[in-house]
Design goal:
Length: about 80
């Protein structure tokens, strides 16, 4: 199972796997971030914290922030 989420304009995916940690996080626009969690909620919280810390570190170092190239698109389908 893979779910896609957005935080601070950056897209990330949470992928379920049948081993620990159960959920692995991937930020396609920020490949330096690696995190995971044993539950979906833990992985989501870890993803948000990891992104916040990474962006804060880049700012403190005077480096530019990565551009968010991927976008989450939600379409409503009427049946």
């Amino acid at each position: 199972m893979k779910t896609t989420h957005e935080y601070r304009g950056y897209i990330f995916t949470l992928t379920y796997q049948a081993q620990e940690p159960a959920y692995v996080v991937d930020f396609p626009d920020v490949p330096d971030i690696i995190t995971s969690g044993d539950t979906l909620a833990e992985a989501f919280a870890n993803a948000c914290e990891a992104l916040d810390l990474h962006l804060e570190s880049l700012q403190k170092l005077g480096k530019g922030l990565p551009k968010a190239k991927h976008r989450l698109v939600v379409e409503e389908v009427n049946r």
